[in-house]
Design a protein that fits this description.
By secondary structure, this protein is of the alpha+beta class. The chain folds into two domains: 71 residues, Winged helix-like DNA-binding domain superfamily/Winged helix DNA-binding domain (Arc Repressor Mutant, subunit A, Orthogonal Bundle), CATH 1.10.10; 51 residues, Ferric-uptake regulator, C-terminal dimerisarion domain (Dna Ligase, domain 1). Helix content is 38%, strand content 16%. It contains four helices and five strands; from the N terminus they run αααββββαβ. Strands 4-3-5 form a three-stranded mixed β-sheet, with no helix packed on it. α2 crosses α3. It is elongated, with a radius of gyration of 17 Å. It binds zinc ion (2 copies). The site of one zinc ion (ZN) has 5 residues, from loops.
Length: 130
């Protein structure tokens, strides 16, 4: 049973890896995984919750909808801050230099930024941001 679960988790991670640039809903993940040994919706839910807890996947709300979307994090994600476009949902990884300066700026105001919990919201260039 355990080996079977590992296999499903591996499938899930491979799929998320292929869609790294796009946050996906549980439904989209389930559809995308369709196949003989594909995990069902409740299994995907459970596995995704595990991955979120493990810090492998990030969960947030898409745009103004009430749909949760999931996106795979990178190994270096703890070193930089993230921006998310509220229009298209794309997650941008800021470079370490910019992330550090932002942290320092806030520190001067006596505030310690939690980079792990923080995602800056805005609009990307492609969606009309500047
Ligand atoms: Zn990142
Ligand atoms: Zn955008």
């Amino acid at each position: 049973m355990k080996g079977y679960q590992t296999e499903q988790k591996r499938m899930l991670l491979t799929f998320l890896e292929q869609h790294r640039a796009h946050p996906l809903t549980i439904e989209e993940i389930v559809c995308g995984l369709a196949g003989e040994h594909a995990p069902g919706k409740s299994t995907v839910y459970r596995l995704m919750n595990q991955l979120v807890e493990d810090g492998v996947v990030r969960r947030f709300v898409r745009g103004n909808s009430r749909h949760f979307v999931y996106q795979l994090m990178q190994e270096t994600c703890h070193k930089h801050l993230h921006c998310r476009c509220v229009a298209c949902g794309t997650l941008y990884h800021l470079d370490e230099e910019t992330s550090r300066s932002m942290g320092q700026l806030l520190q001067q105001s006596g505030f310690a930024l939690d980079g792990q919990q923080t995602t800056l919201l805005g609009t990307c260039r492609g969606c009309g941001g500047r």
